[in-house]
Amino acid sequence: MEGRGETVARVVVIGYGNPHRQDDRAGHVVAEAVREWARQAGRADVRVLTACQLDVDMVEEISSAAEVYFCDTHVVTFSEDVAITPVDVAEEGGFTTHLITPGGLLGLCGKLYQRQPRGVIVSVPGERFDMGDEMSARTAAKVAEAAAWVIGALGGDRPEGSFAIDKKC
Q1: CA distance 88 to 76
Q2: Which residue stretches of the chain are H helix?
C-alpha cells in the first residue's frame, strides 16, 4: 500500500452483518458514521470497510493498522448495552466461510505479516433480525452511542453512555 502513494491506514474500522436483516445492519451504520466523521475531520489515516461477514481477504488491509475496530450486532438478550471488548487473538484454528472471528483475523495477520494490530469489538444490541432495511428504534439509538464511542476513541475521548466496557480497552 505505502509504495503506491496511498495513505497507510493507522486505524481500520470494519462494520459487518447483513444489511438487509433489520438490526443486523447496525455494524454497517456505525462504520458509515465513522467514515463520514473521518471525512469531515480530514482523517485520512482511518479506513472503513463494510461486509456481510468477516473475510480472510481483510487480513492484508488490517496488517497496515495500529488499531482495528470490529463493529457488529449481538442479540439484545445477551446485553442491552453496547459491548466494548478487546479482541483475544486466536493463535490456532481453521477457517470456514461463516466462522471467521476478529481474533482469527488478527492471528492470521500475525502469521502472515508479523504484525498484530490492537483489536476492539464494538457490538450493538439488536432485537429484530427479519428481512428488512429498517432498524428498531432501540438499536438505532444504540448505534448512535456506538459510533460516538468509536469516534471518541479515535479522538482520544471516550464519551459517557450506556456501555459495557471491558477494563482492558
Answers
A1: 22
A2: 26-41, 58-62, 102-113, 137-155
**CATH H-level superfamily of 2-165:** HybD-like (3.40.50.1450)
Summarised one tens digit per residue, pLDDT across range 62-114 is 999 999 999 999 987 777 889 999 999 887 655 555 578 999 999 999 999 99
The label of the residue with cell 471491558 reads 166
* Cβ neighbours of residue 9 closer than 8 Å, sequence gap 6 or more: 45, 46, 47, 61, 64, 65
Neighbours of 146 (CB within 10 A): 33
Would you state the cell numbers that stand for residue 64, as one nine-digit string? 497496515
Bridge partner residues of 132 (DSSP) = 21
Q: Which residues pair with 98 in a beta bridge?
A: none
Chain centre distance of CA 42: 20
pLDDT digits (tens, 9 = 90+) for 26-40: 999 999 999 999 988
